[in-house]
Amino acid sequence: MFERFTQQARQIVEGAQGQARQLHSGRVGTEHLLLSLVAQAGSASADVLAAHGLTHDSVAESVRAYVGAGDLDADALTTLGIDLDAVRDRVEATFGPGALDGGPAGRNTGMIGHIPFTPRAKKVLELSLREAVALKSRTIADGHIALGLLREGEGLAMKVLADRGVDLEAVRRELRTALQA
Predict the structure, then answer these.
(1) Given this model, what pLDDT does residue 32 score?
(2) Which of 43, 139, 164, 172 is packed most tightly, with the most Cβ within 10 A?
(3) Nearest to 8 by CA among 40, 49, 47
(4) Cα–Cα distance, 48 to 87 (Å, whole number)
(5) What is the model's pTM?
(6) Kindly report the CA angle at 70 between 69 and 74, in degrees rounded to 5?
(7) What is the dihedral of CA 97, 100, 103, 108, to 10 degrees?
(8) Could you tell me if 101 and 111 are in contact, meaning their C-beta atoms sit under 8 angstroms apart?
């Protein structure tokens, strides 16, 4: 299936892996796909989502509200004058990626190499193929992934969209229009 993905769609999937790493998640979920979609400046899906008030920062804030940013309490450390991101960067520069995630260099955390996708995230990618077929497209573009996310209809990404008051039908229409242009 991935051979049908455009370069930009592949970047979305790879970007979701990066988003999961940044949030110290052991699996790539729908929220990471959404974060990757809004982070892809200049893509059709990012433009449509931005028109509905979704930016990477706003989505990341909502995701962190649900899942947190790891085991350490960043707010408590900030109160003490400790910048958790700076500490994490320094430790990882010295001891390797994932050093704070348990075990040597995060060996048992899935933070190095490929991070597995949740069943919902896999379903989104499968649905992106169905969206492409329905729109008579020979390739799967970033907009098809966004449509797959909407079609899947559950998961943390959908909670974020609902919390932000996004009109899902309007987004769906606009994505389809952008893909057919």
Answers:
(1) 94
(2) 43
(3) 40
(4) 36
(5) 0.75
(6) 65
(7) -70
(8) yes
Other Cβ atoms within 10 Å of 178 Cβ, number: 17
DSSP letters spanning 25-80: -SSB-HHHHHHHHHHSTT-HHHHHHHHTT--HHHHHHHHHHHH-SSSS-HHHHHHT
Output the six-digit token pair for 22.
């940044």
Per run of 10 residues, the mean pLDDT along the chain (length 181 residues) is 83 92 88 93 88 88 76 60 72 71 44 79 94 92 94 91 91 92 78
- Residue type present at position 18: G
Model confidence pLDDT, tens digit, residues 71-93: 455 566 566 677 767 777 777 77
Q: What structural domains does the chain harbor?
A: 2-180 (1.10.1780.10)
d(CA 25, CA 79): 24
Longest dimension (CA), the chain: 56
